[in-house]
Amino acid sequence: MKKIIKYILIITSLLVFIGFSVFWIWSEQTYEASNNLSTFLGNDTMEYQQNWLVFEPENQQAKTGIILYPGAKVEPEAYSYYGDTLSKEGYLVIIPEVLFNFAIFDQNIAQEIMDYFPTVVQWIIGGHSLGGVAAASFAFNNPTKLDGLILLGSYPTDNNNFTGMDLPMLSIYAKNDGLTTPKEIQETQHLLSQHAELQEIQGGNHAQFGIYGEQKGDGNATISVEEQQRMITDTIKQWLDDANL
């Protein structure tokens, strides 16, 4: 009997190891930033701190920080346009590398970031796709630590119902998104706070919330990635201004 139990434990451990190895290899097959990313950023260089991609405003101390969780298996650099553009408006923007390239496994990294930048007095958290789900989860569990939530082609889960909360929220979604469809956005709108604003990007799709090329299952964009990125950034800036953030 003891030998049977021993063999079962060995086999179970082996299966767990194999399963984890397969998942790890799959999770490392990421969407990298497109080769033409530099054309969007000009001569600006990217700075890393603590494995986080950090964009700081020049010649001033940022009072508001924006933490942006990447989509599943998407490299942080793919969201550099937001960091570069918003930092020039006076915001500190941090896009972290996350565990196994899935922010859902690393939701509380936002707390580490906030602790690392103690001079920042206002914090916004956001994310793209599954990164937005993770950001929403952190926001739901830490509402007093945040001043806003930004969802990019994303929405909260049923467990994170913001109804009745005062947290300002911005949900940006794309008309041609084949992965987070406008229908799903509409069906989950009731989970947003009473201070939520929704904006649709006409002609945009899921992958163009970042700059990393095409994504399987997505719809076809009828606008360029540059135009979609600009429209999203302009919407974020306007929302931040309106909220006095």
TrEMBL record:
Record has Methyltransferase as a keyword: no
Keywords carried by this UniProt record: Membrane, Transmembrane, Transmembrane helix
Superkingdom as given in the UniProt entry: Bacteria
Keyword ATP-binding: no
Domain annotation Alpha/beta hydrolase fold-5: ranges: 65-229
InterPro entries with a match to the protein in the record: AB_hydrolase_5, AB_hydrolase_fold
Signal peptide location: none
Transmembrane annotation, as ranges: 7-26
Protein name: Carboxymethylenebutenolidase
Source organism (scientific name): Virgibacillus kapii
